[in-house]
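Task card 7
Instruction: Convert sequence to structure tokens.
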Amino acid sequence: MSGAFPARVRNVILTRDTWCAGCGSMEEPTIQHRRARGMGGSSRDSTRSPANGLLLCGSGVHGCHGWTESHPAEATFLGWRVTQFDDPTDVPVWRTTPLGGEWVLLDDDGNSTPAPDSALAALAALHAEHLTRRTA
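Output:
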């Protein structure tokens, strides 16, 4: 089963994310799979859901999409990557806006809502745990 986003889902993501979540560019848009298609991810329906897609500029080797692929820990902290164990609808995403940026939760209907403090606290705890493991 392919992990590519169906046309309907691509349209939902492109409507929700009108610019790159990383830098705000509208050039060379691509859709990042927040939870990777590999390691069993492509067999799960949620891998092809709007909440699992995020508009970034570039490809897997350049632009913000490339940065995400080459900086997995930082991209995970920003919510641009999600572990195989996480539900993309539960993981906050940092995205650039015309006024700076915001933490949001993405849903499978193509909406984004401000991330609640509890979700941000959980993200901060996860990041602290990751940093502890990297320095131990």
